[in-house]
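Lecture 7 notes: from sequence to structure.

We start with a single chain of 263 residues. Read the sequence below before looking at the structure.
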Amino acid sequence: MTEPSPHSSAAGLLEVHRLRLVEVAAPQLSREERLAMDRAWEEAVRANPSFFDGPVVASAGLTWEGPHSVVLSWVRTTYRHYALRRVPGATPWLPSLFAAVVQPTEDGRLLAGRMSPTTASPGRWQLPGGSVEPPDDHEPLDVAALRRHAARELVEETGVDTPPDDLTLWGVTRGKRRSVGVLFLAPCQLEALLRERFAALVSAETALGREPELDRIALVRSPAELADLGGARVDYLERVVRRYAEERSGAMPDPDRSLDDGG
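Now the structure, written as tokens:
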């Protein structure tokens, strides 16, 4: 099987068994680009005051270094940099990097959550997860760090507290806008427990006067069930649901969505 370039503009799900992360320097911005970025950021904050300019890790590229083995280059930046996407003709903008959890039930469904109105993507269905924060000085950003981040996002968004060591690297997504997601598979849980933990989380957040990051969860078994949810969803979600169903049924992977996908 020929491995594709992970730089394809199409959304995809790469079958990755080994992931190595390498920090690189951020692209230099001209004075004009920086001014345009600041204007776009200020406009975005006016539209959604919940935006904040905190530290974040961005993706700087994916390259293969062997079968099912990928090198992910990353950059330290802040959320303000993402405003460059809104600037027509801007070229030095960086795509996002996130970690997410594939959380199955014992009967083969996967948990999806809908983003709350105050988030960056209100109403969008996605897996539990979020943008990766840069490590402290002299601390590595590696698969173990991403695993811890994914576990933290899972409990913060759903109330399900899974030890990081119980999460298994499952794949890497590549979005249509070059965003990169590192996916971890969690142990199966009972539907009743997932719904109970989520309800408890929503109740606790509401009591504190805060809006939970997810305002609704759903359990889906097939792409058709995703369509029934209505609303927007992340571009990788359908492929994740399909791949998990194939693995559970023992079917051969669809080459159009694994290594031959491009991502």
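The longest helix spans residues 31-47. Keep this in mind for problem set 3.
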